[in-house]
Design brief:
46% helix; 14 helices; Alpha-Beta Plaits
Amino acid sequence: MDSTLERLDGDRVRLTVAVDETEFEVAVEAAFRRIAKEVRLPGFRPGKAPRKLLEARIGVAAGRQEAIQQSLPDYYGRALVENDIDAIDSPEIEITGGQDEGNLTFDAVVPVRPRATIAGHGSLRVEIPSPEAADEDVDAQLEALRGQHSTLEAVDRPAGDGDQVTIDIDGTFEGEPVEGLTTTDYLYEVGAGAVVPEIDENLRGASVGDVLEFDADHPEEDGTLAFRIEVSEVQARVLPELDDDFAKASSEFDTIDELSADIRERLSVMRRGQTPMLARDRVAQAIADLVDMEIPPALVEAEVDSRINDMAMRMRSQGIDFSVYMEAMGRDVESLRDELREGAELASRVDLGLRAVADAEGLGDVEEPLEEYLGSLATQTGGDVDGIREALSRSGRMLEVRADLRKQAALEWVFERAEVVDEQGNPVDPTLLEPPEPVIQLPDDLTAIPVDDDEVRETDSSVADSTDGEEE
């Protein structure tokens, strides 16, 4: 098979592919074997009719058309790999020869990833939360700890947010009691926002002995819920004092100062651990902001597809069926796609920005990190580096791997030159920005990379579909 490449306008290329008649004949022979299993001829069992007889009955062109439909995705995929084409959408394919005899030839106009231009990436300034815990962070943790050690005290006043009220509640829908909304001596926190907001609205200002009757829209069904609530007790939450006694009762420390210092250090350790990746994330977002171009919808949709596939794969690794999960959550794929699209567009913009940086700064040499990646992959899969390299190349994934390594190099190039400050504009300690682990990450599903000669090249099924009804 031979292929040539022509660059077109509008981020497209044209692949011209020629499959030698001898090679294509293998696909034609396989096609007639499949047809023989479906065509019933007198005197022959299914699948046993000779090809010559089938050609006489249905014509040579029928077998060649079947062969084209079945083999075209493979020929197209091989042409993409041979020419290092970064396709982002389905091609437009025209069969130009071989439908009746001779070599099979076709043209494929392929949408490819656009190239962005970028400026200002060598002097970015990004802001991240301080790696050190602030006083208000410590105070919030102390307040949460106080809440865990609080007590309830009956009060003789109307209920307010945060109070605990003991109630008898009857909730009905179309005259029938609603499970979970009909009970006695139920302890409810005013302002909790459970079920419907009308519950909190009516309990605010209610006193012991009050009987509240009101309606509310059903949150899941068409119709109205009817409520009757009787208040039997109002209790206020009493918080302990923040003193040494509290520290001794709630922790292993003897003083409140020691407890506060421990909370501050634990929060700071957590923040410092998050700082390297958070800073890189902010730099990546800043790079995305420098990309001044319209992102092709096909690129965004491909990123959405990738995220959904990753989600399904992670669930499958945990023994969860993705479709069953979606049904149980009352979700559909289209709503999920809508939810993911904004993040996918940002990721696509980051992708184009990092590629532009790599182009602008000549960051094309990735042989050393590539060897590290292949070595890590070989260790994880139990394969050998050369075999994995060949399999990645044959499947077309080597282009993706090299692109990812170039983008990582671009991100680090920009990061090394960026100014990273906290909310007050103070420079962040550079030692806190070093990544805590190697940058190269292995794919979640290692088995997705074929390591033997039985690999199957996956191509868009629409490739075959795009030839339906084509005429030379």
